Amino acid sequence: MNLDLKNKRAVVCGSTQGIGKAVAMELASMGCNVTLVARNEESLKKTKSELPTSCNQAHSYLCVDFADQAKLKELIEAFVQRTGPVNILINNTGGPAAGPANTAKTEEFINAFNQHLICNHILAQACIEGMKNSGYGRIINIISTSVKQPLPNLGVSNTIRAAVANWSKTLANELAKHNITVNNVLPGATATQRLSSIIDNKALKTNATNDAVKKEMLHEIPMGRFAEASEIASAVAFLASPAASYITGINVPVDGGRTGCL
């Protein structure tokens, strides 16, 4: 099985913590040149220093806040012009705040739509031509199992994640003739800062202990544990590799069996 990513370049968003960082580490360990994208420059510098360089890679970073779509477009277009083709794009952005859909403000939907789908689209458009020219393209969106089965109390997230999933499937069909694959990885409950925040919020709203909330969540997972970020990264890395050249337009749940549908 060919998992070699030497001489490939990947742009990995949200890559200074959690799943994004785990993906960046995994791709670098496979020989990829990794460009980190996040909004905190100190965290970017620290993470860059931790990336494996066994294949003499030249890692880099772009510091940008996804709330500023114009700045993102300017930076990614200049980056591609300066460095050449991006072969692998990992779209990964922190999820919207928890809460029911019926009480969410319209601004919450608009902001989430912009920071997820619109930013994904800006990045993809900047990278697609280079993928075509280089003969190698992988676009992987880290979304949520909610695209298969909406999750309680995540109204805005459920809505926006579904939009990204359908954008991805459409893009996959359009780009398949260029041998560019587009896929979605759907993490289940993963031991990250976001999961801790979700547990804290639910405990506060339900007047329950954090342990009680965790126990309830674990009860829904057949494997009986939360995922590690590295386990999500392994699925992403496979889809980014040459071995996944004929896999496109799919959703891959990595959730320990939690999702109740096929």
Fill in the keyword field for this structure.
alpha/beta; globular; 47% helix; 262 residues; Rossmann fold
CATH topology: Rossmann fold
Uncertain stretches of 5 or more adjacent residues:
none
Structure class: alpha/beta
Order of helices and strands: EHEHEHEHEHEHHHE
* Tally of contiguous helical segments: 8
Level-2 CATH architecture:
3-Layer(aba) Sandwich
Radius of gyration: 18 Å
Output mean pLDDT: 96
Q: Going across the biggest sheet, name each strand in turn.
A: 3-2-1-4-5-6-7
Q: Please, what is the oligomeric state?
A: single chain
Reported for the largest beta sheet, the result is: 7 strands, parallel
What is the top-level CATH class?
A: Alpha Beta
Spatial separation of the terminal alpha carbons: 27 Å
**Helix percent band:** 40-55%
Strand portion, in percent? 5-15%
Count every beta strand, where a strand is a DSSP E run of 2 or more residues. Answer: 7
Going by CATH, the homologous superfamily would be NAD(P)-binding Rossmann-like Domain
Domains, number:
1
State the gist of this model:
The protein has 262 residues and is α/β, with parallel strands linked by helices.
